[in-house]
């Protein structure tokens, strides 16, 4: 049981992809501890797509937080009314133009529970095929990058892939692929 809990919460602003809240925290005796600030966010999804030729489908895209591009797997915000699996396949099509294949769930995690309330859902997509040009959200642009598993390992070693959620999804995808190499992954 926690010795600290929220006494009051106040919305400070809605900023499209998150809502900022201030909370008054009190201890078990009801004494004020301090204020905490959190972001209420929609859940996220990411997927590790493997094309029919065995290459992994990545995107390089600009990230505001570091003011630079990152190399990562496709992903994004789950739209209202969508299941995580539906959002995964939508984001794959939108960001890369790839679709189809067989979807396997890789689990869920909390991206940053110190500040955020959302979940991150991860999937593996095996047997994806290029279907059309990508369709980006306003202000979004992704460069599609196809990599072999060895190239991915090299990118991790040399610091080209640094996004923590991508590294987690890749670890889980590689683990599943290693544990079930004979599984029929065809769509």
CATH architecture of the largest domain: Alpha-Beta Complex
Any idea what the CATH superfamily of the largest domain is called? Nucleoside Triphosphate Pyrophosphohydrolase
CATH topology descriptor of the largest domain: Nucleoside Triphosphate Pyrophosphohydrolase
Number of domains: 2
Oligomer state equals single chain
Terminal CA distance reads 46 Å
In DSSP terms, counting alpha (H) and pi (I) runs of 4 or more, how many helices? 3
Number of strands: 11
By CATH reckoning, the class of the largest domain would read: Alpha Beta
Low-confidence stretches: none
Write up what this structure looks like.
This protein has 187 residues and is an alpha+beta fold. The chain has two domains: 4-40; 44-179, Nucleoside Triphosphate Pyrophosphohydrolase, CATH 3.90.79. The protein is built from three helices and eleven strands, in the order E-E-E-E-E-E-E-H-E-E-E-E-H-H. Strands 4, 7, 8, 9 and 10 form a five-stranded mixed beta sheet that branches. A three-stranded antiparallel beta sheet has the order 1-2-3, with no helix packed on it. A three-stranded antiparallel beta sheet has the order 6-5-11. Strand 1 and strand 2 (19-27) form a beta hairpin. It is elongated, with a radius of gyration of 19 Å. The mean pLDDT is 93.
């Amino acid at each position: 049981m926690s010795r600290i809990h929220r006494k009051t919460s106040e919305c400070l602003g809605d900023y499209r992809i998150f809502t900022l809240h201030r909370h008054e925290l009190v201890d078990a005796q009801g004494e004020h501890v301090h204020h905490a600030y959190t972001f209420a966010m929609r859940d996220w999804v990411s997927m590790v797509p493997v094309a029919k030729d065995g290459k992994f489908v990545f995107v390089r895209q600009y990230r505001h937080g570091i003011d630079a591009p990152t190399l990562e797997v496709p992903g994004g915000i789950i739209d209202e009314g969508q299941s995580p699996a539906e959002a995964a396949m939508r984001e794959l099509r939108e960001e890369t133009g790839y679709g189809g294949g067989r979807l396997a769930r890789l689990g869920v995690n909390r991206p940053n529970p110190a500040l955020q309330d959302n979940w991150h859902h991860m999937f593996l997509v095996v047997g994806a095929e290029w279907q059309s040009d990508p369709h980006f959200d306003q202000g979004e642009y992704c460069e599609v990058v196809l990599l072999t598993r060895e190239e991915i390992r090299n990118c991790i070693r040399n610091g080209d892939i640094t996004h923590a959620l991508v590294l987690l999804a890749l670890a889980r995808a590689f683990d599943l692929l290693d544990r079930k190499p004979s599984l029929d992954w065809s769509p």
